[in-house]
Design brief:
This protein is mainly alpha-helical. Helix content is 65%, strand content 4%.
């Protein structure tokens, strides 16, 4: 570790080598990047069990392309990029294990190629350190094999920003131009608004470079095109879809969500409402170290006259994080994945500077020891939180499975329809459709459900002690796992 960082920072302080002599250096860095990507993939398969059931949002995305369950209601903020990504598996197989393995392999491969974009401007071992820092976060390992869009926005951000750094140095670098357009398109395909926030510094930088501006905008439009078209076809227009998306997210505006994000670091996949105390300071220490180390890396890069490869991802990380720290009133750790991916580059430079800033001897050895000990403690904390998160998620999925078994026993079997509390994921597990009369997923009316109850096995789910909706109050109340199920009379007649 110390030798690698010595080479990295000594070389980083020199001027760029000519392209002809840079190629062997890049090739030498390939095994480091491949090792990081392989370790990341293996970590997902071992630490996040491939048989871990699908979460709530995952069931929505997967149901859009599944041949085994009806499509769940698709609310305004969502984009169909992740549904397209899982379609090669989900369209013909209902195996969660197969889907997890596919996504783990794909996410590791994507990380490798995204890191490769940076080879010309970040020394191989520093770049591998950056990839390792991002890939070792519990939130990265947890969401890598999940059918969720945030990790893929992070990958697109890495590729896009790295491509811009390269084309600023060499406008004839065709691979870099492809990285810019593909990265922007991938982000916009997964989460259009996140893509806009990430590229804001890039757009400012491109104002005097028409070609770069055109490629960035074209990439964004290519990725977000389907979302925009769908807005006019199904949501009443783009302005209405944006308005609905804002409302569903609690109304975009000034919301200080920094403390909420802090609370979520203990393994809460969704913090809404975000109450309770913050996790142990040991769990959150790395979060406070990020800006300090990133600033250190930025200062070192400026002094070495290699500022752009560090300052640009730092600026994009800040704009990517702003909406989730200051504009929405709840938190989820996955929201900040793009910011973490981009911050990894300046943070790795900062750590390398800590090691190489001292003269050889006792000071150097002490610096290496402290950095190594800090990274070891960091990995231990990430593993503990990851284990807790996986266990908690598995417990929730088991509750859903018990409810499904009870519903099937009661006669609520496909083709069937569920409504009420957590109806969306439970319906997916049960092979049913889902419909809600209120809330963010409202897609029908009470009258429509009442009519459907005469021809389709239907149940309304509720927590014990909660009253069912008016149209279901005369229906049979049955225990379904940890929930109560109000079963339409037609179900009992057909049993």
């Amino acid at each position: 570790m110390a030798d690698g960082c010595d080479v990295a920072m000594t070389s980083a302080s020199r001027t760029s080598l000519p392209p002809r002599t840079a190629r062997p250096r890049r090739r030498r860095g390939e095994p480091w990047l491949a090792a990081v990507a392989a370790a990341f993939t293996l970590g997902q398969l071992v630490l996040v069990r491939p048989d871990l059931g699908l979460g709530w949002d995952e069931t929505v995305y997967v149901s859009q392309v599944s041949g085994h369950v009806p499509a769940a209601f698709f609310s305004a903020p969502r984009a169909r990029g992740i549904s397209l990504l899982v379609a090669p598996i989900a369209s013909w197989s209902d195996s969660t294990t197969l889907l997890r393995v596919y996504l783990a392999l794909l996410s590791g491969l994507a990380l490798y190629f995204a890191l490769r974009v940076w080879r010309a401007h970040v020394m191989p071992r520093v770049l591998a350190l950056a990839g390792g820092l991002f890939a070792s976060l519990w939130v990265t390992v947890f969401y890598g094999p999940q059918a969720m869009p945030n990790y893929w926005v992070a990958i697109g951000a890495l590729a896009c920003v790295g491509g811009v750094v390269r084309v600023r140095t060499n406008a004839g670098d065709r691979a870099a131009w492809r990285g810019v357009s593909a990265g922007a398109a991938l982000m916009a395909l997964m989460r259009p608004m996140d893509a806009v926030y990430v590229v804001l510094p890039l757009l400012v930088l491109a104002l005097r470079r028409p070609r770069l501006l055109a490629v960035l905008v074209a990439g964004l439009l290519a990725g977000a095109g389907e979302w925009v078209i769908e807005a006019y076809m199904s949501y009443g227009g783009l302005a209405q879809r944006l308005s609905d998306a804002s409302r569903i997210q609690g109304g975009l505006g000034w919301h200080l969500a920094v403390a909420d994000q802090l609370r979520s670091l203990g393994g809460r996949t969704l913090c809404r409402p975000c109450t309770g105390s913050a996790p142990n300071p040991v769990v959150t220490l790395w979060w406070f170290a990020l800006p300090v180390l990133a600033a250190l890396g930025a200062v070192a890069a400026v002094r070495a006259r290699r500022a752009l490869p560090v300052l640009l991802p730092l600026a994009c990380a800040v704009t990517a994080a702003v909406p989730y720290l200051f504009l929405i009133g709840y938190a989820a750790p996955r929201f900040l994945l793009p910011a973490y991916a981009l911050l990894a580059v300046p943070v790795a430079q900062g750590l390398a500077h800590l090691v190489t800033a001292h003269a050889r001897g006792t000071a150097r050895a002490l610096a290496v020891s402290l950095v190594a000990a800090g990274l070891a403690c960091h990995l231990a904390v990430q593993y503990v939180v990851l284990e807790h998160t996986v266990h908690s998620s598995a417990a929730n999925h088991e509750d859903w499975s018990r409810t499904v078994s009870a519903l099937h026993t009661l006669g609520v079997r496909p083709p069937c329809l569920l409504s009420g509390y957590e109806a969306v994921p439970i319906a997916f597990y049960a092979g049913c459709g889902s419909a809600q009369t209120a809330g963010h997923d409202a897609s029908t009316t009470a009258a429509t459900l009442t009519r459907a109850a005469h021809r389709t096995p239907l149940a309304v789910l509720a927590l014990p002690g909660d009253r069912p909706p008016a149209y279901a109050r005369t229906w049979s109340a049955e225990r379904a796992g940890v929930l109560h199920a109000y079963v339409a009379p037609s179900v009992g007649q057909g049993r």
